[in-house]
């Protein structure tokens, strides 16, 4: 094929693909321009997840009428003059590609006025073609209106994710910048709903409270460290407040949101040995360094960064976060009194266990019950095989004799074939899950009204996700309703979880969803039940009375799949008599 030059329209669309990947990219580029312009108030409005409309208005310096057409041209910027400026960038934008890229894949309107001009100017760009600017009346500042995003690039429009996912990306972006710039007033509107609004009073903890709720904001640990020209500030979560993914780890470098594997690793090293495997902290950290020490000209989206002294910065972040963790949450020492006697019994309602079965059972009635259970399971298995191609295997565990609790986390029990060590949290997860799903199959999930409704505040990016799940929640015995911006009220919850924290159950539904997960597709009910049961189950480190331990063992024995929790983690470890004899040298070692 002959070599030819691309047309300007095709070239601009290719370049736009590197900068404008989704509606959130438009918001990011224009938002950063507003911050560079010194705006004190920034209002963002979106419709249909940004595909139909994105409008960002600010009260910044504005664009002179004579320069408005030039501002929408490619490689036009007021922030760089010489190539050396690339190595000491102090502004968020510098490439001169954002407005041109947006205009090439949308219908864009820019209205702006600077102080000293009587009138403002308006520029319309459609598919990369700009019309002549017109004079209009407008306040000082700039309004960028982007309509019909990707209307002329249908392939790009086709590959956008679901509206709820695109909204979450926009919400998460604006949330992060609101935390990074607490002295600015942000307002985010989705249709007629106000998703986020900050006062601009400079209080980051108040913004955390608006985003995550007062309880979470109170728990966050403040980080303030300065060393050899590096400064780190912000908040990290205590070890008791975690997420199942890294999405809530946020780093800003000199006011710019970046995604850095090095910084994330440094932070996680600070939590080393303090968090369970698969759990991650909730953080918002702001690193200030000499602009000459960092290169942000790595990727067209300016989302990555490279450091001149990466090892030094890695060590600084790790030590600063670790110091804050140990200062606010020192590593606990085991009280000597715990070794001398038995822990005090815990009220049954505090852990949500069901003591109705197995508490006062005699050996005879227990044996009869388990025999009936096995017969019922066999009939259920035969029925399932007859109606489905899937083969279900029931792995029973033998009757166990309780020995005691180890480390307030594990139960030790004796079986006919050896010793069993049982993870109380995983075991209780399995028990709650099977009871809840059994009630679900019978379509009889008892619900219990709360004496005082619980009010829960969620981050904007998870609000829409929860709204889509409200019908499923109601089916499972929850009574949840909207109670203001990003706020919900829990009026009732399943009786199975009586005595548990309703807000914890609600958060469990939305905190662990991955970006590409479709929450209302197949298996959503099982996923939802598993998430809630995990949060409601008795925790590691919680002392149980002897009766509570026996009841948990009995309920676990009655489960169809007692050897794993709903997420696949083992509930127990079996040490056979043969293995014990070999370890103690009673038989020859292999």
What labels would you give this structure?
five-stranded mixed beta sheet, alpha+beta, Ribosomal Protein S5, domain 2, formyl-coa transferase, domain 3, 3 domains, 590 residues, Heat Shock Protein 90, 18 helices, 25 strands, nine-stranded mixed beta sheet, 22% strand
* Percent helix range: 25-40%
> If you compute it from the alpha carbons, what radius of gyration comes out, rounded to the nearest whole angstrom?
29 Å
Q: What is the average of the pLDDT values?
A: 80
**Total beta-strand segments:** 25
- CATH hierarchy: architecture of the largest domain: 2-Layer Sandwich
- Counted up, domains total 3
Profile the largest sheet. 9 strands, mixed
What is the terminal-to-terminal distance?
69 Å
Derived from helix and strand composition plus strand pairing, the structural class reads: alpha+beta
